[in-house]
Amino acid sequence: MSKAKAEYGQTDALNGRYLFWGEAGYPAALQALPDAPPVLAAHGHTALLDKPMITMVGARNASAAARKMTAALSTDLATAGLVIVSGLARGVDGAAHQAALANGTIAVIGNGAAHAYPRDNADLQSAIIEQGLLLSENPPDTAPQASLFPRRNRIIAGLSLGVILVEAARRSGSLITARLAGEQGREVFAVPNSPLDARCLGSNNLLRDGAVMTESADDVLNVLRPLMEQREMDARSPPPPRSITAEPDPPDDELRALIIELMGPVPMTIDELIEAANAPVSTVHLVLLELELAGRLTQEPGGKISLI
Predict the structure, then answer these.
(1) Are residues 141 and 185 in the same domain?
(2) Mind listing the pLDDT tens digit for each residue in 28-49?
(3) Overall number of domains in the chain
């Protein structure tokens, strides 16, 4: 597991930490997703995950009008108490992050944190780590690959109360995020745009399909405010009593071997693995992280895992 140790060290050197599914600190909104990532690398201010979030996505080659609208929505929604989530791409994503930076913004990237992609957003990525939060389900040295970006969209959608599509063509990757949001039970918003601009046809179609027409932050807040108020009430409720347990020791070779032996090419859930191993949740997650960083773990549909 020398590769896993190297990945730990690299994440630590980038001022990152790991968030494990089922553990304190892991985003509550992601916990219930059937394909939730077992582990997230987090760089920056993880306290932002405790606040209500809204995702903003759209065209990489966004028009000047779309960038202006994005900045206005992002600023107003952040001022109203929502954390802006996006994917750190060019165009709408970058404009959303930049406008919300002072209030805290979350970027979910498809590569590892050791890479800045696109390169012209390198300074913005550094600023987000300093003032906001950068999340990735990939090892830090994972280079940008086209196949990874659609997969991270489920995280971008899953973190938030809803998704706003500012501008998107018919085959835009942003439509994947909007579709996933609908499947996850999130609210879907879209900004109306000119039917003469091909960059707007996808977002305009969403409006025909029932997305909430969004011309200002009030259109979003009118829908989300009851959800935000309910979230605040739930947060004020006293938590159930918790037993205090000692932090588990790192897995020894025997327990690590047992956990790996229990796994195989047949997919199983993390809960099934924890029960079969009769081991602490943290310990199982540490072994899974080592396997993932070593390239030996794969996620299957339904939130199941298996060995490669």
Answers:
(1) yes
(2) 999 888 889 989 999 999 999 9
(3) 2
